[in-house]
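Run: sequence + ketopantoate -> complex structure.
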Amino acid sequence: MAAPRHQEATSASGGFTLILGAGAIGRLWAASLPPQRVRFIPRDTVPAARCCEYRLQAADGNQYPASIPYCETAQPLPRADCLLVTTKAADALPALERHITRLPRDIPVVLFQNGMGSQQRIAARWPERPILAAVTTEGANNPSAHLTIHAGRGQTSIGSLTPNAEHCLPTVVRHLQNSRLRVFPEPEIHQRLWQKLIVNAGINPFTALLNCVNGDILAHPFYLQHIDPLCQELHQLMAREGLNSPSADALRETIETVARATALNTSSMRADVLKNRPTEIDYINGYVASRGEALNLELATNRMLAERVRALTHC
Ligand code: KPL
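>> structure
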């Protein structure tokens, strides 16, 4: 099968992209951007291989080979138009700390982490750098070491987190539009991050605790017992954070629309539990509970869900 056709990259440095994090989303982006113009920054100081080799199964079911070179560890990083950080939320800050001195100060850094908290910590750590956040609804998973499945087409919204990111947002968006993925600028990125947080807070912990696909939570008594109190808490917190806060019923409707649209998906949290990997609960319901504590709100349902999910991977 021939590789899909890409539009020509047009930006000054040749449309080069660096990616930190070769998980499913990192691999999807690497294989979707123009070939020869992407490098993975290796996780370890000495990568086991020169290239990350895998097959991408596109949303239409066709498979394409991808061979993405790792940057040389002993050399300076190649000049690039942007860096995509596609690690898990907990790994993003330590991974950036390891490489930041090799990155020019003006390179836009686009954060793809789930949930909330890691992006804010990174923006606070390097406020002088152009740091952006991406919220993506692209579905991707790695069923095996050498296969990435683009499970569902979505879109990616990008917005700035630090003042220096404002002016580079249009260039970053244009650059990433050289992929086959849909990318848009998002002036209200905080609101978008919260919308995604709401969906993850209402689906992920239930799928992990009930060990089921997204759609199956909807009729489960445990979900039915807790979803309204959960949505009340999310509504209360959003209002206290000064965000545009839909009613608890509207939040439930949003959660259930996504659960129905992704009914057969295994959520990222359930996948982590099944593989006995740390989950992102501290950045989802755990984040909500801790913001509640900071603002003197008792958000007991989020706290209970966070504690129960943590217990799944700590024993
Ligand atoms: O984002 C997701 C995740 O699994 O983390 C949802 C929307 C729940 C889709 O599975």
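>> summary
Residues 191-310 form a domain with the N-(1-d-carboxylethyl)-l-norvaline Dehydrogenase; domain 2 fold (CATH 1.10.1040.10). Residues 114, 199-200, 203-204, 214, 258, 262, 265, 267-268 surround ketopantoate (CB under 6 Å).
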